[in-house]
């Protein structure tokens, strides 16, 4: 015969473990990095034709807000890109793009976001 008390205790223990796993799962966040290159990435590919092309395709962005919706501004950008803060206190960023078409797409996205006032992340 099965001891109901032991079974309930075992079940509660398992449910507690499942609950703890679910709680810890919520702490993991997957962020789509897309074509964004980090400073480390740039160091790894230093001296390549890609970096030289990206150095030719740079723009500066000056904003009045730190909460820039970079993912929205990079919609439909096909190549690799890098966002480098030049002066965070003055909110100046330098963006490097793999191609001129990506600069054009970024400019279109920026224009649309200015019109719809969504260039900044919602609070």
Can you describe what's shown?
With 123 residues, the chain is of the alpha+beta class. It folds into 2 domains: 1-29; 39-116, 2-Layer Sandwich (Alpha-Beta Plaits). Helix content is 46%, strand content 15%. It has 5 helices and 3 strands; from the N terminus they run αααβαββα. The chain has helices at 4-25, 39-44, 49-56, 70-73, 100-116; strands at 58-62, 81-87, 92-97. A 3-stranded antiparallel sheet has the order 1-3-2. It is globular. The mean pLDDT is 80.
Briefly say what this structure is.
The chain has 123 residues and is α+β, with helices and mostly antiparallel strands. The protein is 46% helix and 15% strand. The chain folds into 2 domains: 29 residues; 78 residues, Alpha-Beta Plaits (2-Layer Sandwich), CATH 3.30.70.
Distinctive features:
globular, alpha+beta, 15% strand, three-stranded antiparallel beta sheet, 5 helices, 123 residues, 2 domains, Alpha-Beta Plaits
What ranges have pLDDT less than 50 throughout 5 or more consecutive residues? none
Helical content (DSSP H or I, runs of 4+): 40-55%
What proportion strand? 5-15%
What order do the strands of the largest sheet run in, or round the barrel if closed?
Answer: 1-3-2
What is the overall number of helices?
5
Number of separate structural domains: 2
The shape is: globular
The CATH level-2 architecture of the largest domain is identified as 2-Layer Sandwich
Instruction: Provide the CATH top-level class of the largest domain.
Output: Alpha Beta
Q: What is the SS-derived class?
A: alpha+beta
Task: Give the tally of β-strands.
Answer: 3
Secondary-structure element order, as H and E?
Answer: HHHEHEEH
Mean pLDDT: 80
Examine the coordinates and then state which fold CATH places here, giving the name of the CATH topology of the largest domain: Alpha-Beta Plaits
Terminal Cα span = 59 Å
């Amino acid at each position: 015969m099965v001891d109901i008390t032991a079974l309930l205790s075992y079940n509660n223990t398992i449910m507690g473990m499942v609950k703890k796993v679910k709680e810890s799962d919520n702490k993991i966040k997957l962020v789509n990095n897309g074509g964004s290159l980090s400073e480390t990435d740039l160091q790894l590919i230093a001296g390549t034709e890609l970096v030289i092309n990206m150095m030719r395709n740079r723009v500066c962005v000056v904003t009045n807000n730190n909460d820039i919706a970079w993912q929205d501004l990079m919609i439909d950008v096909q190549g690799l890109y890098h966002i480098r803060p030049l002066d965070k206190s003055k909110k100046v960023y330098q963006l490097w793009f793999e191609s001129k078409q990506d600069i054009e797409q970024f400019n279109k996205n920026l224009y649309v976001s200015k019109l719809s006032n969504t260039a900044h992340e919602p609070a």
